[in-house]
Predict the structure of UbiH/Coq6 family FAD-binding oxidoreductase.
Amino acid sequence: MHVVIVGGGLVGAAAAVTAQQAGYRVTLLERGASPLSTPEQAPWDLRISSVHEKNRHWLQRLGVWSRVESSKHLAYDALSVTTRDGLSVTFTAAEVDQPQLGVMVENNALIRAMWHYVAEHSQVELRSDTAVQSYDLSGQQLHFATGEALSYDLLIGADGANSAVARAAGIGMRGWDYDMRCLLAIVETEKPVAPATWEIFREQGPYALLPLDQHRACLIDYRSEQEWRSADEAAIAEGLEQTFAPHIGSFELQRHGSFPLRRQRALRYIDTRGVVLIGDAAHSIHPLAGQGVNLGFADVQELFEQLAQKPLDQALRGYERKQMAVNQQMMRVMDAIHVGFRSEHLAARAAVALGLTAVSKLAPLRKQIIRAAMGDSQI
Ligand SMILES: Cc1cc2nc3c(=O)[nH]c(=O)nc-3n(C[C@H](O)[C@H](O)[C@H](O)COP(=O)(O)OP(=O)(O)OC[C@H]3O[C@@H](n4cnc5c(N)ncnc54)[C@H](O)[C@@H]3O)c2cc1C
């Protein structure tokens, strides 16, 4: 079987590794530059993911985790959440007798590790700086501007939230903008940073810290689209200082950038002409709980498990049935957190407070939540 993957980001590259290991012939098409041409020692990029333990173990079994530069990932062993009313709950890996909950990893470093892996295998063809000119789904062929045609048995759309594969297959999307922007900033701190991630909710939106190494962190500040869009450099530096200095002391801002927040889901994940969507092409969620790429990796695992057991059309249907339910459940949880923790409404705030009080006191519930954060089960 020839598997063609459009999009060589985190999820598409993981699909290429998995498809190669399943014995398929693979072509990976990426419209951007090859990640193999990025220098390894470049400073931390802004795009960072928290990958939970279950997925990290999977990446380890695939043989890619050991290839990620050690300076571009950090294990974290605790996470805490504080409500608008100042109620706080902390979860630790130690409570479930584990050394860590997951890892913070630079997206580029992980993508590079996966591209390095597939570049070593002759049954995978990597094509960067490549754009598909047209999709002939009935003939199961892609056409390039050079006049070349590429046939496939399975076309995987891993081309992110604005998926050309989904459009070509006529797959509709449903979604909305949260009217919020997420500002990410890499900072160097004077005091050591604990290997713990935290998030604090306030009226405008939450703010959070992801630890990167002993004196480096990624600060995340969610505010209204208008507030961050209109802020100049000085206002951004001042906003970060006011928000984070009380928690982490003085720091030096190294780089920052902001992303609009959008929730979107494909109305179908598959097309009967041998097309399947995975990762953000199928679903993009609020990054609040750092689950986007974890869901994408789960898509890859489920898709190839189904393909190993069933004929192609049945496998695609099985994949869609399972992952659509899982992903929509996570989207609902994210929306409930987004609304519940920000709400002005007394009832919503009371519900959050009662929930957190219960969580902080009930050991079995705490353990269940910690295992869910590690990817072992769903909430
Ligand atoms: C601010 C922010 C913070 C986040 N933090 C986390 C986190 O902590 N943990 C987590 O799990 N998730 C997080 N996410 C979500 C996570 O980044 C995404 O879910 C993940 O990157 C999706 O990967 P993907 O490969 O599906 O899509 P993408 O990362 O969008 O990759 C798509 C790839 O396809 C390529 N492409 C696009 N169109 C074409 C085309 N027509 N032809 C060829 N190639 C194409 C692109 O160049 C790109 O390389 C965060 C997201 C945001 C915005």
Q: What stands out?
A: Residues 6-12, 29-32, 49-50, 131-132, 158-160, 164, 182, 184, 259, 279-280, 287, 290-294, 296 surround flavin-adenine dinucleotide (CB under 6 Å).
